Amino acid sequence: MFLQLDDICFSYPDSGCLLFSGLSVSFSEGWTVVAGANGTGKSTLVSIAAGLIVPDTGRVRKSGEAVLCPQVFEGLIPEDWSDLFSNDNTVGKLKSSLAISDEMIEREHSLSGGEKKRLQLLAALSHSPQILILDEPTNHLDLYSRNLIIRTLENFEGIGIIVSHDRSFASALSERTLLLERDSQGLVSVEDIPLSLPLALEESERRKKYDRAAYDSISNAISSQRQVARNLSEKSHAKEKKLTKKGLDSKDHDAKARIDGARLSGKDASLAGAIRNQLSRSRQLESRLASQKKPLMRKEGLSLTGGMRVPDLFFPESVLMAGQYSLSVPELTVHAGSHIAITGLNGSGKTLFMKAFYEYQCRHGKGDSVLYIPQEFSEEERNEILFTFASLEDDERGLVLSDLYRMGSNPASLSSCELSPSPGEMKKLALALCRRQGRSVLLMDEPTNHMDIVSIRILERMFREDGKEMTILLVSHDDVFLSSCTDTVWRVERKGNTGRLCLL
């Protein structure tokens, strides 16, 4: 089996700029992770590999059928039904591995997000593809669904490609990572690193620092060589003045003889030779510098402490209801500066608790100090954030755009008159506005959903290093993210129609 992209060039029809130019990459059996910031063409690359997008030039060579599972599952197609309800023993084993029953297949539109992802994978694997491509397969997945998918994918014997920012998921399947990065001209380069995603990110950062140090070293050496050449040139000019006969008395034969002797000694010639040598070395270094990669070192992260420190937050012992489901919550005191992770399976009531906690703080006079960023923004919430941003004075809007850049965004996406940021960009915009509004309590529900790996790592450092004085509560299934930036864990456990919040 093989999948080869040869000399691929591609630009979007509505853009005059190339996204890929002369891109070549090959895939063999096993899993490869594709990662990078938003806008680096990850989904485009795998769509080209799957044959769903035709490149401008270059070709895609592959053996066998390629199946792409996009980020959003839009439902089963007629071909899926016949395969899923066949008597094929392999399909039966896949159903068992992914915990999908026939009854669940028949009510596909009422399944939870995690169940739909498992059904999407089941449908793809039922076609026995030789090449399987998954685009962000773990968005909205809890630990249970993620483990089922990992266990199933470990048994896949073809060529597998995963677009993912989920480091623990990616590491469980692959030790090869393609990191995509876009330069200032919009062109994407691909760094192929034979390491798991977390280690590949560290290695890429190490390479950038090394390349930047090498570039700066050569640049400094050129400056030194030029300065030496200037000094020698000045010395040469001074000597030329001393060796000129202009202005001498025509009868001063002794002075003329001394100048002739100095000229015959060749000292001025050796000085000219030294100048030529310095300039030659400088040109050689300039040639090396022209071929030396100069990685852009983005300024990342920003302080989140923008307002008065809020005292300890209180939440009373409560029973929260959602239909027939009840969640018992003990009396809580959240100390200022706490960083708390809230974990649990989907449907256990994490979001139910987070909303109740936020509404209680609002009712008791602390709403102006608290920012709640939900898992998904409603249309009304989205419009309110965009209106607040658009209403800023030009200088203040510029500061917000600068904050977005430091959080891994491309500010150009928010500089146009028609604002249509992605869900991940909306979360970062809300954070940037929060910093300007002096809020010091942050509640975020699934902060890493819809965010790229660059932004996630920046967010981790912000919470861990720059947000120490801020009170932060995070609902997330991303255990790597939580372990990096929280110090306390609360777990929501559910049995049937009752659940409880446990303080670990």
Describe the structure.
With 504 residues, the chain is of the alpha/beta class. It folds into three domains: 3-194, Rossmann fold; 208-291; 313-503, Rossmann fold. Helix content is 44%, strand content 21%. The protein is built from 16 helices and 19 strands. The strands form four sheets. Strands 11-12-19-18-14-17-16-15 form an eight-stranded mixed beta sheet, sandwiched between helices. α15 (453-466) links the parallel β16 (441-445) and β17 (471-475). α8 (197-242) packs antiparallel against α10 (267-291) and α15 (453-466) runs parallel beside α16. It is globular, with a radius of gyration of 31 Å. The model has no long low-confidence stretch (mean pLDDT 85).
**DSSP, total strands:** 19
CATH class annotation of the largest domain: Alpha Beta
CATH superfamily of the largest domain: P-loop containing nucleotide triphosphate hydrolases
Q: In DSSP terms, counting alpha (H) and pi (I) runs of 4 or more, how many helices?
A: 16
Low-confidence residue ranges? none
Classification by helices and strands: alpha/beta
Question: What is this structure, in a nutshell?
Answer:
With 504 residues, the chain is an alpha/beta fold. The protein has helices at 42-50, 78-84, 89-98, 102-106, 113-126, 143-153, 167-173, 197-242, 253-265, 267-291, 350-363, 379-390, 394-406, 423-436, 453-466, 479-485; strands at residues 3-10, 20-27, 30-36, 57-62, 66-69, 131-135, 159-163, 177-182, 188-193, 313-315, 318-322, 325-329, 332-334, 339-343, 370-373, 441-445, 471-475, 488-495, 498-503. Helices cover 44% and strands 21% of the residues.
